[in-house]
Amino acid sequence: MRKIIPIILLFLIMGCVGVKNIETKRVEAIYYCINDHPYCRVAEKYLKNIKFLDLDYCNVRDLKNCSNISKKYIGYIYTLPTLIAENKSFNGLFGLLEFMNTLKREGYNIDVPKVSEVLSSIEEVVKNYKSKDVKVFLEYLKEFKNNTTKTRVYFFYSPYCPHCIAVKPYVESLVNKTNITFCNVNNFGNCSSDAKFVATLSGLRGVPTAVVVNSSTAKVLIGEDEIRELEKYV
After folding, report:
1. Residue 69 neighbours by CB under 8 Å, 6+ apart
2. Tell me: the pLDDT tens digits for 86-142?
3. Which of 19, 91, 117, 165 has its CA 20 to 30 A from that of 142?
4. Domain 149-233 in CATH 3.40.30.10
């Protein structure tokens, strides 16, 4: 009996200090959006299911009802939806996925939707909009979704950006390994429709940026250093 008691105590101690119940830790985030924005509606579909998330919502069309802390950062918001959490900005729907993946890596029990699911959610929202362009957009969305069955890379650059010039040869060296679309942001109108769409989904804010997309995941690499890790994701 004396031998059993220490063993029981040992398991009790291990149970107290070894189990990490991270779900008890609340996550605070500022969320910027517009109520009727289709991407915002998709984002909110997933955000509302994160039970441990304390969301400070700011409708950018109604700033008088936003909190003082959210107003403080409003000048840095360039795309919707945008989340600010743990001193980091997560832009666009792909940014939302990165935010959720970050929580998962930190040990939170969270289901991160696949890119294909997010695209389907966009379709569900947009088809209810009354616009002559809806049908065309839905047809394009279906085609884009089919294209994500294989991993694709979208590289956004400027010929006047020294970091873009430095990293572009490295990106070009990978064209035989994966499908890469190049988009010169100084001539954005001539970029492919897919590149323009990816730019909105990733909340493109600067160059160089590389976005890796497939039906399961999306990874946004910003800056020369991150893009030089591109091969790991293709």
Report:
1. 30, 56
2. 889 999 999 999 999 999 999 999 999 999 999 999 999 999 888 888 999 999 999
3. 91
4. yes
Q: How far apart, in whole angstroms, are the C-alpha atoms of residue 169 and residue 182? A: 12
Distance separating the N- and C-terminal Cα atoms of the chain = 59
Quick: pLDDT tens for 46-60.
999 999 999 999 999
Cα(217)–Cα(211) distance, rounded to whole angstroms?
A: 10
Residue with tokens 């600067």: 206
Amino acid letter, 120: S
The pLDDT of residue 22 is above 70: no
CATH number of 22-113: 3.40.30.10
The answer on pLDDT for 193 being more than 50 is yes
Q: What's the half-sphere exposure (Cβ side, CA atoms, 13 Å) at 142?
A: 8
